[in-house]
Amino acid sequence: MFLKRLFNLIPKDEYSRALDMYNNGHYKKALKRFEALLAESDDSEGMDMQTLELYACEAHVALSKEHATEGNIAEAARDMEKAVALKPRFADLRYTLGTFYIKLGNLNKAKELFRNALEINPKYFKARVHLARVLLSLEEKDESTGELEAARAYCPNFYKKELDDLIRALRISTDDDDINLCFYEILEERPSSSQISREIAIEAIHNGSYTEAIRELKKAIAYQPDYPDLHNYLGIAYGNNGMVDDALEEFEVALKINPKYIKARLNLALVLYENGRFPEAKTNIEAVLEVQPENQLANNLLSELETVKGRS
After folding, report:
1. Any domain includes 118
2. Could you tell me the pTM of the whole model?
3. Which of 72, 121, 143, 174 has the highest count of CB atoms within 10 angstroms of its CB?
4. DSSP-based three-state secondary structure for 191
5. What's the structural domain count of the chain?
6. How many Cβ atoms from other residues are within 10 Å of residue 254's Cβ?
7. In which band, very low, low, confident or very high, does the pLDDT at 174 lie, cut at 50, 70 and 90?
8. Residue 303, CA distances (Å) to 242, 247, 283, 306 in order
9. For residue 45, what pLDDT is reported?
10. Do 239 and 254 touch, CB atoms closer than 8 A?
11. Is 280 in contact with 272 (CB distance < 8 Å)?
């Protein structure tokens, strides 16, 4: 399988030990190792820094979620702030942090974060609805209605009735309970955000449930089409499901969004290699080695490729 082949190429070093901790749910311990590796990045050979930052970010997100579940919203916000600092272009992180600031009573900060999320992804439906809710709480009713009107253009079909009801309530109702209920029906009843779908998908990949992972990642991408990691994960799920062309397409989309995404390029190279497309695989491996000459994963794959070619 794709994941097993990839695992066999990963060097067993401090990086992989940190990943083991992360994958086993030991987020605090994993985070300490990730942060130590980041601090030593100039001396770490073969380190995919973008991937390392991603895992450190995900560890902060996991810890933030644990704090939120325990009702410690201040700590949840602190960990999410650190996640945002690592990956400032991830709209979902800013959105989630905005929801924490609502609970902490800092509506102006929440407004800023929802606007940030929309600058990254203008089609982020729930971020715009949440922004409208905050604006209404700040007594900026006209702006609130304007944001909801703007949300019509990319409202998912299953929210259209609720959005129409909400806009109508804002225009004609003086009952705050009616308006709050309309917001609730959009923001609370269907918790299918990009982050939730992504978490379900990652767990499904680790469990070998690739069809489920594909379904959830497609949901997540509908919310955040410009999030390269989602396309990379979808490529992994497709690869493990034997859907080679789809896997290649997703890795290429991830690289189009972020040409420096080393992990996606290595995944692309591995799928090409596994399917006998050696020249293309080698081109992508060499592209990695131009940036990171000591990348052990790329060197291991190149060595294996040259051995196989030598036999043919």
Report:
1. no
2. 0.61
3. 121
4. coil
5. 2
6. 25
7. low
8. 24, 23, 14, 5
9. 42
10. no
11. yes
* Boundary residue ending a domain (46, 70, 88): 88
How many C-beta atoms surround the C-beta of residue 263 within 10 A? 21
Q: With b meaning 16 or more CB within 10 Å and e meaning fewer, what string describes 104-125? A: eeebebbbbbbbbbbebbebbb
| CA–CA dist 90, 117 (Å, integer) | 8
Chain position carrying tokens 């410009």: 226
The first and second tokens of residue 93, run together, are 């992180």
Place of tokens 């996991």: 62
Structural domain boundaries, residue 84: 1-88
End residue of a domain, out of 88, 116, 133: 88
pLDDT tens digits along 179-236: 888 888 888 744 446 777 888 888 888 778 889 999 999 988 887 788 888 999 999 9
| CA dist 97 → 60, 296, 311 (Å) | 12, 36, 54
Note the residue count of the chain: 312
